[in-house]
TrEMBL record:
Family recorded in the similarity comment: Belongs to the TRAFAC class TrmE-Era-EngA-EngB-Septin-like GTPase superfamily. EngB GTPase family.
GO MF entries: GTP binding; metal ion binding
Taxonomy of the source species: Bacteria, Pseudomonadati, Pseudomonadota, Alphaproteobacteria, Acetobacterales
Cofactor: Mg(2+)
GO cellular component: cytosol
GO annotation terms (biological process): division septum assembly
Name the UniProt record assigns to this protein: Probable GTP-binding protein EngB
Organism superkingdom: Bacteria
UniProt-listed InterPro entries: G_ENGB_dom (IPR030393), GTP-bd (IPR006073), GTP-bd_ribosome_bio_YsxC (IPR019987), P-loop_NTPase (IPR027417)
SUPFAM superfamilies, per database record: P-loop containing nucleoside triphosphate hydrolases
Record-linked NCBIfam families: GTPase_YsxC
Keywords: Cell cycle, Cell division, GTP-binding, Magnesium, Metal-binding, Nucleotide-binding, Septation
Length: 223
């Protein structure tokens, strides 16, 4: 479910994009690299989409829902501990990058240092990075760490797109307020992409539409 700021499309265009997203994410998707240091990054290849968000925002669940896998991306047993960039190859046409969570209290200092160091360097210098999907939990208020990451993404001049997670939980009125807030946030940041999404990994809300959005950034299908 995208917001009203997304680019208007005809029903035929929408159907074509939804099918392209379905086909892309129904294909093979495999973990192929984990990097804990900048010099360990794999050589640039297919266009990259990085997923970022606070610890426990539902990042791993969303990646699994998009790819139709139960355990492709795994959450750490202790939030805030995962510090490496995990790379997943989606049919040779798109690379999904699972970034470390931020904002976890017990690891706040280390995570902040990671994001100000290696993560910022990755975001600013990766030539194949097309977009960062910034996840915000629809059930809770926006945190200072979320605002800090948006400012960091502005500084890095990296396009990011806000995606709300766990949208099956709030009541309809509360969810609509969160969607309006997300759209307002996007307008406040020069690096933010205007279209935002409301998703649920449990019910599938918004998953086909987000697949379609990301498929538009993938390499063309061979043959």
């Amino acid at each position: 479910m995208s917001d009203f700021n997304a680019t208007p499309r005809t029903p035929d265009e929408e159907e074509r994009l939804l099918e392209a997203g379905r086909l892309l994410f129904a294909g093979p998707c495999d973990f192929f690299f984990g990097a804990q240091k900048l010099e360990q990054l794999p050589p640039p290849g297919a266009p990259e989409i990085a997923f970022a968000g606070r610890s426990n925002v539902g990042k791993s669940s969303l990646i699994n829902a998009l790819t139709g896998r139960r355990a492709l991306a795994r959450a750490s047993s202790e939030p805030g501990r995962t510090k490496q960039l995990n790379f997943f190859d989606l049919g040779g046409r798109l690379t999904l990058v699972d970034m470390p969570g931020y904002g976890y209290a017990r690891a706040a200092k280390d995570v902040k240092e990671d994001w100000q160091g290696m993560m910022f360097a990755y975001l600013r210098g990766r030539p194949t990075l097309q977009r960062v999907i910034l996840l915000l939990d629809s059930r809770i208020e926006l945190k200072a760490s979320d605002r800090e990451i948006m400012t960091l993404l502005d500084r890095a001049a990296v396009t990011f797109q806000i995606v709300l997670t766990k949208c099956d939980a709030p009541r309809p009125g509360a969810l609509e307020a969160k969607r309006s807030q997300a759209a307002d946030l996007a307008r406040q940041h020069p690096a933010a992409y205007p279209g935002t999404f409301a998703t649920s990994s449990d019910t599938g809300l918004g998953i086909p539409e987000l697949r379609a959005e990301l498929a538009a950034l993938a390499l063309p299908q061979a043959g």
